[in-house]
Amino acid sequence: MQIRSLAGALLAAAALFPVLTTTATAAPVAEAPAAAPAADTPVSRNGQLHVCGLKLCNQNNQPVQLRGMSTHGIQWYSSCLKTASLDALAYDWKADILRISMYVQEGGYETNPRKFTDMVHGYIEEATKRGMYALVDWHQLTPGDPNANLSRAKTFFTEIADRHKNKNNIIYDIANEPNGVSWAGIKSYAEQMVPVIRAKDADSVIFVGTHGWASLGVSDGRNESDIINNKINATNLMYTFHFYAASHKQEYFDALSRASNQIPIFVTEFGTQTYTGDGGNDFTWSKKYLDFLKSKQIGWTNWNFSDDFRSGAVFKQGTCAGNSFTGTGPLKPAGVWIRDRIINRNL
Ligand code: IDC
């Protein structure tokens, strides 16, 4: 069934964008939108995930490290999420996971819940067709207290979980980056949201952002002990950590390192540059982090899969207007580096 639908997707892609299959380009790999996609996908190999101790495990109870990309805000960069780009992510980059970043404010969900919920439904289907995990990111940011959007979150996740409950590739991230709120406030929010999702999708893995913009509290002058001493009362849940390698160095790394021995962690966002998502890349610190995440089998999604002008957007400006996303040609330096870390599992 999966093979058929993937083949169908390919045919559709070829029909829509014949240029991809017929035009010779400098990089041969760029010609194949999705050469032999396949029965063998991250989701077909791993199935329904669950939290096993401190790790994320697959259907055979083996730890699995997922690697993939976060979209930019879908209210701004939906042009970067089309057949050719998603094919490139799945079949050229060989990503395991797509994080669907739906802002709540800043022109996002709150402005048109129907429209944004439908967009997320659509991107979930696109990830599913290609055998990738779909991480549904409730991208609250300003205001930073997730409780401010509690009733919206309940409405949104009830519909998402109800529609997709029979899929085995959905992960729910109920708070992107809580800020200006105590850990206790986030815990209270999570303990209200988890039952809402589980009432529809009982076996789902749920992520929740930590305090201080998902810094395990460090950006608030606190640390992971707030969480370890007051864990969320729920199973199958992971705590998220974000870092921007040019900004967040030893103190953040140390907190991650300590916390990873105590609580299950997933890195739902990181950049190789500063926390603005811009500026020079620090590949030395990025490598230090990613080597560590590999050693712990902590999964990650990089910010971000767009052609925004900032250095952290993987594509060069203007790329998303076209249909050439494969290879390194369309990528900024951060994109080249990240794609390599996704393709090469031995890195
Ligand atoms: C940035 C975007 C930028 C947008 C800004 C405001 O790159 O275009 O104007 O958000 O929302 C985060 C956030 C993420 C940020 C990213 C880079 O989760 O939304 O994106 N970042 O600044 N946390 C740390 C860094």
UniProtKB/TrEMBL annotation:
Biological process per Gene Ontology, one example term: polysaccharide catabolic process
Reactions mediated catalytically: Endohydrolysis of (1->4)-beta-D-glucosidic linkages in cellulose, lichenin and cereal beta-D-glucans
One Pfam family it belongs to: Cellulase
Domain of life where this protein originates: Bacteria
Domain Glycoside hydrolase family positions: 57-307
Record's keyword terms, sorted: Glycosidase, Hydrolase, Signal
GO molecular function: cellulase activity
Alphabetized Gene3D superfamilies for the sequence: Glycosidases (3.20.20.80)
Residues in the signal sequence: 1-26
EC number: 3.2.1.4
Family: Belongs to the glycosyl hydrolase 5 (cellulase A) family.
PANTHER family in the cross-refs: ENDO-BETA-1,4-GLUCANASE A, GLYCOSIDE HYDROLASE FAMILY 5 DOMAIN-CONTAINING PROTEIN
Name of the protein in question: cellulase
